[in-house]
Amino acid sequence: MYIEKQTSKYASVGYFDNELIHNWVRRKPPHQRRFYWLLAKQFQSFTIKPLSEVNLEDIQAFVSAQTLQKIPPRQIAKNLAVIKSLMTFGYQTGCLPMNISPMEWQQLKLVKLAIKKQKQYKIRLPLTLSVWFLSAAIPLSILNQFQPSQRVFNLVRSWNTPAIPSANEVYGQSEYLKNPNIKAFLDTISQAEGTSGPDGYRTIFAGETFSDYSKHPDEVKCAYSNGQRLCSSAAGKYQFLKPTFDRLQKKLNLPDFSPQSQDLAAIELIREEGALEDIKAGKIKEALEKVSAIWVHIEGAGYGQPEHSFEKLEGIYQKHRQKYE
Predict the structure, then answer these.
(1) What is the DSSP string of 137-189?
(2) CA 311, CA 325: separation in Å to the nearest integer?
(3) Which of 59, 119, 190, 323 places its Cα 20 to 30 Å from the Cα of 208?
């Protein structure tokens, strides 16, 4: 069972954390799942460690980094609640140890409220006076636990200026594109997303197209599906949302939104979900289950849009696979 595997692998990262996130996202309302998944991925990229090892200092560094990015306090509070939900779900299901107690979560809230109060009055203070203001707003016994250590500064610095692999390292991944199983799987995802035609790489949500491959087009388009009006910035053969591609572009040092960059970004998404080895081994249903939280038209995605069954997608995969025999 999943819980037994995860419990015995507290120190592992990658597949087990991604499966935990996948199961957690599926329990959220369909209209919120994309936001929850994106924020969990952002948090993973920030901490660069297994969720089982995340502690109070990591959470505080995440909040501090968002404050430095001038994210509104209300949004920071919402993001913090999402991370708390994920960590609590992991603990309740036996997948994560309780590294952060309820009291510590409350202390985080107090610090956040002090920052919010400071912003409400639009105080323009030197750093030393800002520290004094926070000290006056929060009991010393609590504030002492949040003195920024060098590790916190390093975490914030590494998040704002992430380590970028060299071009040779990134394009070494193009070897994956020579694997017939992976090529067929990418074609299957494209067909499920409705972008399998000759214009797939330059398709925007709702069927329109773009011509500039230098960057993600970042055009929000709207369409009706199942009687609901949906708007999205999804673009390209794999219908990347702008925030998703931005994260992958920084991670992989991709130069543009060209077909090759789109392929490499899609492969990295699949790898993050622990599905790449399944595809190479021909375990297509298992791979589809793992990536259903990413692509909305796969069975079990739960985003309120039409979904293709695993059986149908496996049949589509086999047809594409024959092309690469």
Answers:
(1) HS-HHHHGGG---HHHHHHHHHHHS-----HHHHHHGGGGGG-HHHHHHHHHH
(2) 21
(3) 323
- Both 45 and 128 in one domain: the answer is yes
Q: Give the separation between CA 234 and CA 204, rounded to whole angstroms.
A: 6
pLDDT (tens digit per residue) in 230-278: 778 889 999 998 888 988 998 899 999 999 999 999 999 998 888 999 9
Do 32 and 174 fall within a single domain? no
Q: Choose one of 101, 132, 160: the last residue of a domain.
A: 160
The answer to whether residue 130 scores a pLDDT higher than 60 is: no
Question: Which residues partner with 115 through β-bridges?
Answer: none
CA angle 249, 253, 324 (to 5 degrees): 75
Same domain, 6 and 129: yes
Among residues 145, 160, 175, which one ends one of the domains?
A: 160
Span 105-123, pLDDT tens digits: 777 765 545 445 444 444 4
Lowest mean pLDDT among 43-57, 123-137, 275-289: 123-137
CB neighbours of residue 18 within 10 Å:
22
Q: Which residue has the tokens 């599906």?
A: 225
92 vs 71: CA distance, rounded Å:
30
Number of domains composing the chain: 2
Question: What is the 8-class DSSP label of residue 308?
Answer: B
Query: Nearest Cα to 213, choosing from 222, 223, 200?
Result: 200
64 and 41, same structural domain? yes
Residues recognised as catalytic: 193
